[in-house]
Specification:
This protein has 345 residues and is of the alpha/beta class. It has 2 domains: 208 residues, 3-Layer(aba) Sandwich (D-Maltodextrin-Binding Protein, domain 2), CATH 3.40.190.10; 98 residues, Periplasmic binding protein-like II (D-Maltodextrin-Binding Protein, domain 2). It contains 16 helices and 10 strands. Helix 2 packs across helix 12, helix 7 crosses helix 15 and helix 12 packs across helix 13. It is globular and about 60 Å long. 49% of the residues are buried.
């Protein structure tokens, strides 16, 4: 059995390398791409890559780039096959793969090298540390990645997650509830809620933002994930999409305004200045980590990912601990020298 498995693996690898060598001259592969949330500047590089033909140049036709309901929900969209490719939370993928070993699938490109997960409160509430949340009311969509990881956040910080009463609300209600005092805290990606609250007249200076990364949880976050069917049928399309996406991020870092122009084309109602600032914050705080500056975009550190998997497994009480290799497959990444990011800001 081992010999046969090794032969099958060798044949599969040979087929993949041969397909890559064939290049983009092959027929285009159509894919639908799910974003993590409503349209934001933090997603603009994916639109820029499409507008500049980077996916098409690699043999991939992105027929749709659709908004999502939360980075955790993207995992379900890809798992169901509704979308071939998704931009979602790798911690939610760890949970899915642990619970569904027969349906497990990997992420193939890391985007948010540092997790933007946070708990946000108003300074006037007096909630300034995690333990201050005990006995308070929170509001979040049930599929929000920060909410999904809240139990782990509470455990690492020494309090019972059940001591916080959460309301399951739509994304559109989350920030207004905090602004009106109907919730003591909300869970969110920082760059989602801080800018949303600003439009409601609540400046960032009046907020207390508890980033999970500042309170003991060194997690990866949003990544590109792909259905097993596409991995099997079109490995060159997977590699092509990844290469195109990285080129989009490289261009967006050099020229953020161009990236915002791309999402403005997708939605003319986009607030360009607000989304430009959101994109810059995303790049600065969650993409351009020291790890990425050193190693280029897209890859992970296996030891760091294994540690994060341990956090997720224990925090969510998962049935099994998956390996880093199960949830992240780096074979579709271009060479390191092609993944370097040029910092011009």
């Amino acid at each position: 059995m081992t010999v046969r498995s090794d032969k099958r693996a060798a044949l599969a690898a040979a087929a993949f390398l041969a397909a890559l060598a064939a290049g983009p001259a092959a027929a285009q592969t159509n894919v639908k791409f799910s974003l993590d949330f409503t349209l934001q500047g933090s997603q603009a590089p994916f639109f820029l890559a499409r507008d500049r033909g980077y996916y098409a140049a690699e043999g991939v036709t992105v027929t749709a780039i659709d908004v999502g309901r939360g980075s955790g929900d993207t995992v379900n969209r890809v798992a169901s096959g509704t979308y071939e490719i998704g931009f979602g939370d790798i911690n939610s993928l760890i949970e899915f793969d642990s619970k569904n070993p027969d349906k497990a699938f990997p992420a193939v490109m890391m985007v948010y090298n540092k997790a933007p997960m946070s708990i946000i409160t108003l300074k006037k509430s007096g909630i300034s540390t995690p333990k201050d949340l005990v006995g308070k009311k929170g509001a979040a969509p049930s599929f929000d990645a920060s909410y999904r990881m809240f139990d782990m956040f509470a455990k690492v910080n020494g309090f019972d997650p059940k001591s916080v009463t959460w309301s399951n609300v739509s994304p559109q209600l989350r920030e207004p509830m905090l602004a009106r005092g109907e919730a003591d805290a909300i869970s969110s990606f920082t760059f989602t809620s801080t800018f949303a609250l600003e439009t409601l007249g609540v400046p960032e200076s009046s907020l207390n933002i508890m980033k999970y990364s500042d309170y003991g949880l060194d997690l990866y976050s949003n990544a590109i994930m792909v259905t097993p069917a596409l991995l099997k049928s079109s490995p060159t399309a997977v590699a092509g999409f990844v290469k195109g996406a990285i080129r989009g991020w490289q261009d967006a870092i050099k020229d953020p305004q161009a990236a915002i122009a791309s999402i403005k084309k997708a939605d003319p109602l986009v607030n360009e200045q607000l989304e430009l600032e959101r994109l810059k914050v995303t790049i600065r705080d969650f993409v351009l980590s020291d790890e990425v500056k050193k190693n280029g975009m897209g890859d992970v550190d296996d030891a760091r990912l294994e540690k994060a998997i341990g956090y997720v497994t224990e925090g969510l009480g998962l049935p099994r601990k998956v390996s880093a290799k199960e949830v992240f497959d780096r074979q579709f990444l271009p060479p390191k020298e092609q993944r370097k990011l040029t910092i011009t800001q």
